[in-house]
Amino acid sequence: MRETSTPAAIKKLMLTSPWFLLIFLVIPFYIVVGIKLHLHVSGDLLLANNACFLLLVAVRLIWYALRLGRDIRYGADYRPPRNLDTLVRPIETKPELAAAGYRFDAQGSYGEKRDLGFPGTTLLYAGLLLLLFFGTYDYLREYSIMVRTGVGEPMPLDGKGLAGQFEAGGLAATSSLPQLQVKSQILPNAQWPQGATEIALIDKDHKELATGTIAPGKPFRYGGLDFHMIRFIFDTLIVIREGKSIVYESFVKLLPLPVKKGEFSYFGGLANKDSGAVKGGAWLNPEKRSVLVEATLDGKKLVDTQLELWGENKKVQGKYLASLEGIAQWSEIRVARGRHRSMLMIGAALALLGVVMRLVFRPKRVWLNERSATRDN
Amino acid sequence: MKQLCLHKLHYLLLPVLLMAMTGCGANSSALNGANGGSGSVTAKLVIGKGAAAKAVANALPAGIASLQFTVTGSDANGNAIPVVRNTITTTDSNGQGTVTGIYPGQVTVAVKALAANNTVVYEGFAINVTVAAGPTPANAGTIVLSAPLTKPQDANCVACHETTLDVNGQNLVADFKQSGHYMNLSWTANPRSDNGVVTTGAGCAGCHGPSHNDVNPATSGRCYECHGGNFYPSHLGNAVAIQNNNCNNCHQPHNTTQFVQGTCVACHAVGQDATASGSFVDDNSGVRAITAEFSKRSHHITGGSPKDEQCAVCHLEGKVVNGIVMVDSAYHMKGAAIYLRNADTDAAFVWSGTEHTNMDNFCFSCHDSNGATSAGIAAIMTGKNFGGPFSPTNPFADTLTNGYDQVARAGVVDVKTAFTTSNASHHAVSGQRYKYRFSTAANALVWFNRDPAHRTMPAASEIAEGHTDLDGNAIDAAADFGETMTGDYSLGGQLTPLTTPKNGTTGSNFTAKGEGESTLYEAEKFVGTYVPLGASNTVADNSTLHCGDCHTVGQWKAGSTTNADGSATTVAIGAHGSANEYLLRNSLGTDALHNNLTYVCFNCHKAGLAAGNWFAAPTLGFGVLHPVQNKNQVMGYATAHAISAFHIQCLADSANNIGATDRLSKSWEGDKTTLDYAPAVVGGAALPAGGSDANYGNITGIACTNCHNSGLRSSFGGIHGGDNTYTDGLGRTQKSYRFMPGMGNYRYAPPGGWDGKDVSNPKFVTVAGNAAGIAGGKPMGGCYTNGAVDTNPGYSSCNHHGTSTTPVYGGGTTGVGNGDGTNGAGDTSKTSATWEPTVREATAGNALVTRPLKY
Questions:
Q1: How many CB atoms lie under 10 A from the CB of residue A231?
Q2: Which DSSP helix (H) or strand (E) runs through B1?
Q3: Is the minimum CB–CB distance between B724 and chain A shorter than 8 Å?
Q4: What is the DSSP string of B665-681?
Q5: pLDDT of chain A along its 377 residues, tens only?
């Protein structure tokens, strides 16, 4: 075998070596292990890894693509045989090989027959390129936010002033996102068993860009953004007084009950760090805007009564006055930028097809070494 | 033309006719009310002088052979009801006749008195008569019959359209024949020609042409061909109304003395300029364009566009007749004033712009414990639901919420009770909170000597000393103002050189001051330039206020009040809607959303941090009211408000955030650590680049309410006043004086109680030597939150200081000395590095300027 020079080795490493690609699995492996071990791992590290991987794949794709039309694709230097089996054939062998489809280099000492494995490798890199490009692009453009908002003014989605989950990639361009406005909230009915929310998307000039109705499992898509309604959540302002002393005053957050309690479909506990010994619960009937309040103080009943926001919202029980002073209804909405799923799927398919072709169709290559028969004998 | 001179008519009673109707053309059995689906109408017919007609039994008046009744109209859905036409030729023994077969709905009754030869001798109309099912007849009132006016070029039109309904669902001819467009025969100018046929002046053909040539003359510009040079002055400047052919936005086209349905909101969608010059201005020189104001950030009437009924809830200019809101000419355009409805009695509150007490009482009549209880409002609104059911505490029948905090209230906020003058806290709207601007003669002298060139030594009558307080109790100057103000009531001089960066974590750059007691006015804690509504003096302890001092009703007109800096307001806002939240003014006088530099609070209370280098301007900014030492701690007692350990986080506001979750949890300004604040009084300063600390807002978005909401953690309106009790950070029961505590988790523990003199419990008194420079025997207290890991049950989120019943000195001595400046420039004091209860007030050793609860 001929000696391999350093540049050639680097070229081989960069352009053709399948083992070099394994280096790009190190960081993903570290990330996975880090997450499993609850270590702080940076997504940027993975991004950098994938960007480098993408670059390398792009170079290799170009390298392979340029050779697709050539007679000599692999070249004599590409994986030359480690062990030579010498076959003594007459000089006529070369024409026979040519007739069989082999093409030889200028020296005539190396030939190869076109195989589907080489396009398979090209397809593999094309698929990887698609996967990495759109994966990286989607990561940089990643945008996901969870908002709780009610009917009212539009809410900016740029993350400023927003609590809760918010994730945005470096190219998310959050400042150009529309504002989200809840126009109305539809409590569960025959058409919308889990309720629905009518939303509008508002631009910076307060113009309405689009409107739609979202419900659990029925998202609305606009401008590459998916708007998912998760559920309704309520806050009820409950106050219990004993004369001038405020025994309890808090917004109680109410979440959907898995099973209704009579007419009530939402529940929240009264106890919190500020409530002292006041404990109990509140059940809400959102249609009637009525709340059943059961409160105890040091284990003894404070109040156990039903209040209606726009009806009998104050009741005296013993020395306590219970009142329902406010209800807020929030639509919990997740907004996320969709990924290029189709491109990712195409990339994966191409890569898989390429791998299969590479494995099924092996290279057919010959190295010819002319020797005289006399000497050999 | 005698027969046309209605003013000369004298009325003779003609038969009182009972027109009974039965639903769906049923028979007259409905007269006795047996059929629940039918109704009836009564009307009295009168004719003019000279008719010589009188009510008689069993006959019609002489000269009248028959009376023809034509009933047209629309039902509750706006659909036309069948036309009923009937003729009677005689009356019964009571002089009454009967017409049957009328459908329920909103009807027009057209009456023609016919002679024997069937010529019309008199005619008259009743419009908008509401006929309801049931035995009780609707009263159509008096129908005046007068001799008919015939306009030849319109005769054919009238004949064909006799039962046509107008845009308001009433009889078109009945409308039209009462209009000057029909009655004015003398107008012959502006003829129009259609296909060679010339018609003159107004009238059916005069506007539409003889053959339906112009279906909508209002939009095609016919109105202006006659009226173009003769608009009322109130229309001259109204570009929208005039230029866009929008006459029929307001005017019923066939009877221009009437307004189209939707009168209030339609007509007041555009401004009306009442000045002779006709220059349209958007303020109360005329009437502002009101309707659009209800779509501002905060506004009365929520959850939808305003309805006429909702206008009439507040305004007596509107009344309900037969279920429809009509202009009440007794009030509408009656002089320059408007007439507001007492929501409990329906009496009028006259408001011409200066009757601020009237305006207060008008607001209170609804914003009290029982809401709007008047019979008039009930008549207008009962059964209405514009987002919520009508009730006295939901008089607009709306959603009782707003677009920014998005919490639906149970009812109107009861501010009248909050303003009760016996409450522990109240702003001085229902009465003074304090009686004097000056405490003692000695303190008044100190105040005078600070600026003798511009001040006048207060008269003895202005000084509390020697007088009685608001309860009539004698003021004991020695006890109530035991420690005479020394003039050291503000931050002391600046240390040089500055050794601590302004965003540093330790040290003070100001020297401490001595103790003293004074009024807020003496201590110059009030904005020196703001003049409350109706007052001649600048705001002080003894001022009385009005709703309009804080809310935008005070800015009903440009120049109606002053800004914090004393300049006249330049923007008209009013009580309908505001770009700010909660219909609040801001301290700049603009119609814009406030922020922690421009809260309405800063109209009266000095606040804000000095722009740029606040260290170099100790007399400016938030530090004047709540002196800030650095980003973490305040200097201590050097304030009239004995707030200590005041954190910048406490200033975090979240106005402009949408929804309660975001308003309480994150400030819109990001991170406020550089402290570049400008006092509101020097308005115009740009917002700091940094912003306020995140995660310490409250649902109102107003930083002040973190501490001041009269003991209410989550409920709205405590800043008006309150009389609650709370358990302070040292476990004591306190009354909610000074509007404390607020919507934050802070449980303010007043050192030595609210009079600052209680040192009876050694547990709450400093021990000499527990820290350098701290004297013993000082009462301790300060701000507490409900726990270092407080989960924020209320609509605020501060959890900085944990609860402890054991007073702890706010340690962390990272500097040199005790911060009182006596140790030179390196005296950088101490700071709190841990989340301890903030009991630094008494221990800081700085000046105390406090005041009694009554004077």
A1: 15
A2: none
A3: yes
A4: H--TT----S-----GG
A5: 455 678 888 888 888 888 899 999 999 999 999 888 888 778 888 899 999 999 999 999 999 999 999 999 998 888 887 776 677 666 677 888 889 999 999 888 899 999 999 999 999 999 999 999 999 999 899 899 888 889 999 988 877 655 456 788 888 888 889 999 999 999 999 999 999 999 999 998 889 999 999 999 999 999 889 999 999 999 999 999 999 999 999 889 899 999 999 999 999 999 876 666 789 999 999 999 999 999 999 889 999 999 999 999 999 999 999 999 999 999 999 999 988 989 999 999 999 999 999 999 999 888 887 776 654 44
DSSP state letters, B431-491: S-S-S-SB--HHHHHHHHHHSTTT--PPPGGGB-TTSB-TTSPBP-HHHHT-SB--S--S-
Phi, psi of B80 (to 5 degrees): -65, 140
E strands, B255-365, where? Answer: 298-299, 318-321, 324-327, 338-341, 348-351
Distance CA B732, CA B730 (A): 6
Contact B787 A323 (CB under 8 A): no
The amino acid occupying position B410 is A
List the alpha helices (DSSP H) in B112-169. Answer: 155-160
Chain B hits for A323, Cβ within 8 Å? 410
Closest-CA residue to B836 (of B797, B854, B809, B855): B809
Nearest CA in chain A to B664: A163
B420 touching A (Cβ < 8 Å): no
Q: What share of chain B is helix, strand, coil (3-state, %, to 5)?
A: 20, 15, 65
Cα(A198)–Cα(A192) distance, integer angstroms: 12
CB atoms B793 and A274 under 8 Å = yes
State the SS3 of B405-443: CCCEECCCCCHHHHCCCCCCEECCCCCCCCCCCECCHHH
Decide if B471 contacts B486 (C-beta within 8 A).
no
Q: Is the pTM of this model over 0.90?
A: no
Q: Which residues of A29-54 are buried (b: 16+ CB within 10 A; e: fewer)?
A: eebeeeeeeeeebeeeebbebbeebb
Whole-complex ipTM: 0.79
On whether any CB of chain A is under 8 Å from the CB of B811, the answer is: no
Query: Which of B301, B330, B325 minimizes the C-alpha distance to B379?
Result: B325
List phi, psi (to 5°) of B326: -120, 160
Q: Give dist(CA A288, CA A264) in Å, integer.
A: 10
User: What amino acid occupies position B346?
Assistant: D
